[in-house]
Request: fold
Amino acid sequence: MGDKQGLTLCFIGCGNLGTAILGGLLSTLTEGPEGTCPFSQFIVSVRTEVSVTRLQKEFCQYQVKPRIYQNENGLAVSESDVIILATDPADIASVLTAQEEIDKVPGLYPPEHVWVTRTLPNVAALVHQGLTVIKTPYPSMPTSYLALTKAIFDRVGKTIVLPPSLLDAATVVGGSTPAFFAIICEALIDASVAVGVPRGVAHAGIAQAMLGTAHMLQAGMQPAVIKDLGTSPEGCTMSGLMVLEEAAVRGHVGRALREAVTVARLMGSDVHLNDTRK
Reply:
């Protein structure tokens, strides 16, 4: 791929996250956090007719519409400058080892003109508030390619670049925690209903409280400071916090994150001291 404008971006697979990323690009073709979008054409290759129909409906609102192919990975790749493998990690090997993909995408044995980087977006990309972890590129990789990668994923949230040694942990810190937060919110909403608050009101209230807390954290406030600001002697908040402490919620939440990281690492071969199993 040369240094040029008007590139063609290809998605192999396009589930929830792929759809969110492509939608973020299509909605910011002229303006975005990184300036003008470097892509002018988009191609998607999916397996089923159902997916083709879903994507046609999803993207019909945009002025620039992606070309959508069914089971034409090789053709899609041959017409593109940049390729995103937006499939489930378990499916990537089968996608790359199909004969036509071996002919079109030397991804398993990349020559000098092909660069591969790993990205880990999270589910919040669905509302353009995601966190995408980008693997530190090879030293020989041109800096313009990292800039291009960031330009893609900055349109659906924020990006950070981390070395390979941190990717398993980052998978959990960025990718698993939305599910953890959702469980906590669900428990708070159900408890609110139990004490008489209508479910819709409880949902809106808990969501706004979490959003406000997130903004305070992003502004640099430490969690302990936020906690102290919301408590008073013999107050209701402190009484609730004591229940959480007595139940060792802090320790269990920390262990849940460590367990998730352990499983992520077990998918590879590294051993780390703080893992919860050997």
